[in-house]
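Quick question, first post here. What does this chain look like in 3D?
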Amino acid sequence: MKAIIAGGGIGGLVTALCFIHQGWNVEVLEQAQEISEVGAGIQLSPNAMKVFEALGLASALEKVGFLPEAIEIRMGESGMRLIRTPLAEAAVERWGSPYLHIHRADFISVLQLALQECASESLKLGATLERYEHDDHEVRAFLANGEYSSGDVLIGADGIHSAVRSQMLGSDQPVFTGNVAWRCVVPVERLGRSAPDPVACAWMGRGKHAVTYLLRGGKLANLVAVVERDDWTVESWVETGSRAEALKDFAGWHPTILRLMEESDALFRWALFDRRPLAKWTDGRVAILGDAAHPMLPFMAQGAAMAIEDAWTVASRVTYSETVQKGLAEYRSLRFDRASSIQAASRANAQTFHQRELVGRIKTYGPIWLAGKIAPKIGLMRQDSVYGYNVVSAAANISR
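> Answer (accepted):
Ran it through. Tokens below.
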């Protein structure tokens, strides 16, 4: 059995490894001439780490990542701490797996190396998918250079501008959220006393918020800073903006945030668009996953985790179901409600993070502050349904 996977990013590489784990041959079609990632961090929560434990990659990821001591919420201007919830040991004790911060380039390197070790010829670079055809016996993926590949299933892990989704559903109309995100990574040694603490910290503010955490054993600091504005709407991971503009967006904020911007070599920015849940994820022997199926705003740090859960589920279902088509239908059925609910929760968090009015700030942040004083672990309880989910067990429950 052979799986063709469109897209050689995180979702595509994890999907390939999940299919290989199930005994499939794979071919990964990536349109870029080389796989690279901009300097940015990613959060791998326990629900995502469950998959890498099953794949035997958890230790490799932990070696190049960073285990945060706690989760914190602070006010963006004053730095006042609302709540601090211990995380390093609690994650394993409560959810069964660690919570990891990792540089995207390091993450991709671990995935690529794992793929090379078990299927060295499976990654095809410079392979731009134009269209697909399928029948009862196979699916064919046609490339821009006139070549085509055939297999038993085609998985579109080709991101927010997915060619597979476009053929399956037609062009869509994403909605600009009115939010623009700034991203950068900075060596901690440059930051002095303004270096972020070794925690995953969300900083709340009027019409904006930021997230800071550490990478590479604590040697790098990562910043994601989101601001409400409507004068820049480019949806791209590689567009850069000026330092002066970023500092203006966060004028008056805590020195930790401003120092990160001041010391960064490059500030990337991208406009955040939203897409409502899609009614259709499959077409015969073809399916989409990750951002191609359910792109998420970054307000719960679950975009990559949902793609990883998708990857395990789709590989499991098509392996153990009577037919590929039935397996893909089961994959969509298993994943739709969970992905849609986390999409909605991510969307709602924008309002929580960006309270502008005094009354709203008191009503939102007051209970968080109170919980931090009397029951700091309540923050862990609120994440049980997300972080405590075990997709490996969920898929296995109907696999036999």
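The CA atoms of residues 352 and 360 lie 9 Å apart.
The chain is about 40% helix and 25% strand.
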